[in-house]
Design a protein that fits this description.
The protein is α/β, with parallel strands linked by helices. It folds into 2 domains: 127 residues, Aspartate Aminotransferase, domain 1 (Alpha-Beta Complex); 243 residues, 3-Layer(aba) Sandwich (Aspartate Aminotransferase, domain 2). Helices cover 39% and strands 15% of the residues. It has 12 helices and 15 strands. It has a 7-stranded mixed β-sheet with strand order 2-8-7-6-5-3-4, sandwiched between helices. A 4-stranded antiparallel β-sheet has the order 9-10-15-12. It is globular, with a radius of gyration of 22 Å. The protein starts with a helix and ends in an 8-residue tail after the last helix. The structure holds pyridoxal-5'-phosphate. The site of pyridoxal-5'-phosphate has 12 residues, from helix 4. Catalyzes the removal of elemental sulfur atoms from cysteine to produce alanine. Seems to participate in the biosynthesis of the nitrogenase metalloclusters by providing the inorganic sulfur required for the Fe-S core formation. This is Cysteine desulfurase. Its cofactor is pyridoxal 5'-phosphate. Its EC number is 2.8.1.7. One of its GO terms (cellular component) is cytosol.
Length: 392
């Protein structure tokens, strides 16, 4: 880590988390001392690698209340989401199912939205449902969409821009009654809030390692066994992962992912309390100087460690970020050249161009201290006090 990185206040854990030192230690041991292919089990080196993979599978399963046989390793949540949505829809079509509707929500991650939209080319009917001002999906809206025979519904557990937590326990029975499969993108939720695939009524669920202090490049898809959910694989190959995901598994990454899940399960409540405290410290301090600051979707149930802050009128998030180089946060908007396009997530919640352009995403983490939250608040206030004219 160089000095710039060490001095920076990192408030962008929703984008990615640093590897937990305990995760790093596990991965380094494997990199330095083990070299087997987990699929070459005719010798001890391969068998050891396979054991590492199975240990990791058990840890990932435990974090979300699944059976280890229900975990398919992938390269991350993007791949898991693609496999779940395209794989399930294609399998049903191949079995002769007349169900063509695939439903998702306007605030989903791009990899879900694009996977659903891509299916239109294969004769499916993508339906993108709206959310209310707090980013929540109204069960009545889902119920109405399910009047047409539906293959699959994909609803994320927690949103990556606002932290809004959907009420899956209330929505799942509607999907089940309609005879459709329910998939959830759990990338932001796993390790950050209690996740139980049975209680949530999921047929499929996607996780990402690098969102929970594990390495980048690893993820998993939960595929329910009873009643059994079948998928068409995305890749042709050696038939690893029960034929659903061919390719040699990266044992050291998966061991790190497993260790990250083990830690997350043990420390999730402690982490959540810590993150809620950091958020409260940060917001109280910011509001002393900027009382008009708003948390987008504040009334909705939200993750404790991820919030979208709307600055008072007259400030532009892009300018504020530029004025605080030592504080790493995300824009609540997608940026193209010098223009700010409102984030589609905030736009779906009814925010206008100006409101979205004043929004920042902040996400402290497990290793952030209260003193750092105070320093971050001071830097933000200082930067926001450099009054900037709104473009347009
Ligand atoms: C909600 C959500 N889904 C999916 C992804 C993609 O995850 P990955 O980087 O593991 O492909 C992310 C991360 O950007 C995310 O926040």
């Amino acid at each position: 880590m160089n000095n710039v990185e060490r001095d920076a206040l990192y408030f962008d854990h929703a984008a990615t988390t640093p590897c937990d030192p305990r995760v790093r230690a596990v991965m380094l041991t494997i990199l330095e001392t083990e070299h087997g292919n987990p699929h070459s089990t005719t010798h001890a080196a391969g068998r050891r690698a396979a054991e590492r993979v199975e240990e990791a599978r058990a840890e990932v399963a435990a974090l979300i209340g699944a059976d280890p046989r229900e975990i398919i390793f992938t390269s991350g949540a993007t791949e898991a989401n693609n496999l779940a949505i395209k794989g399930a829809a294609r399998h049903l079509a191949a079995m002769g199912s007349p169900r063509r509707r695939v439903i998702t929500v306007a605030t989903e991650h791009k990899c879900v939205l694009e996977s659903v939209r891509d299916l239109a080319q294969e004769g499916f009917e993508p339906v993108i449902l709206p959310v209310d001002f707090n980013g929540l999906l109204d069960p009545a809206v889902l119920q109405k969409a399910l009047e047409v025979p539906t293959a699959l519904v994909s609803i994320m557990a927690a949103n990556n821009e606002t932290g809004v937590v959907q009420d899956l326990a209330a929505l799942a029975p509607l999907v089940e009654q309609a005879g459709a499969l329910l998939h959830s993108d759990l990338a932001q939720a796993a390790g950050k809030m209690p996740v139980d695939v049975r209680r949530m009524g999921l047929a499929l669920g996607s996780i990402s390692s690098h969102k929970l202090y594990g390495p980048k490049g690893a993820g998993a898809l939960f595929v329910r066994r009873r009643p059994r959910v079948r998928l068409q694989p995305l890749f042709s190959g050696g038939g690893q992962e029960r034929g659903l995901r061919s390719g040699t598994l990266p044992d050291f990454l998966l061991a790190g992912f497993g260790e990250a899940c083990r830690i997350a399960l043990v420390e999730q409540e402690k982490d959540a309390a810590h993150l809620a405290h950091l958020r409260d410290v940060f917001l109280a301090r910011v509001r002393q100087s900027l009382p008009d600051v708003v948390v987008n979707a504040e009334p909705a149930p939200r993750l404790p460690g991820l919030f979208s802050l709307r600055l008072p009128e007259g400030r532009r998030a892009l300018d504020v970020i530029a004025a605080m180089p030592g504080l790493a946060v995300s824009l609540g908007s997608a940026c193209s050249s010098a223009e700010i396009a409102p984030s589609y997530v905030l736009e779906a919640m009814g925010l206008g161009r100006d409101e979205a352009g004043r929004s920042l995403r902040l996400s402290p983490g497990r290793f952030t201290s209260a003193a750092e939250a105070e320093r971050a608040a001071d830097r933000l206030v200082q930067a926001a006090q450099i009054k900037t004219a709104l473009a347009g």
